[in-house]
Amino acid sequence: MTKPPHDLFLAAKEAMAKAYAPYSKFPVGAAIRCEDGRVFSGANIEVASYPEGWCAETTALGHYIMGSGGRITEVAVIAERMAKVTPCGGCRQRLAEFTQPDTRLHLCDNDGVVETVTMEWILPYGFRGDILK
Predict the structure, then answer these.
(1) Region for 76 from its dihedrals, namely left if φ exceeds 0, alpha if ψ lies in -120 to 50, beta otherwise
(2) CATH code of the region 6-124
């Protein structure tokens, strides 16, 4: 049974509240749900030497990997100052490494999920490890 994405939105929003974004002033949060229901979240973390910090999606993926992950069924992303934020190009590729083309990506504003797309939609020609020869 699939849970509604609102709880995933809340996990991303809670993570966003922990963002360390003193330079850009652009807090972002992300949350990943696995098939077994576990949720891994992360926030962006900046450092003075741009662009050496990392994005919220990258932080969430780190927690996912350290938590022994599983099949990812959905991802939610939120930014405090931007409605319907999408993952940057690098994070789209990072997410594609661990998701399937049909994995749902929930784009959020401060009130909830605004739109849901698939990873295939957001990154139609993503570079996938399974195509390497």
Answers:
(1) beta
(2) 3.40.140.10
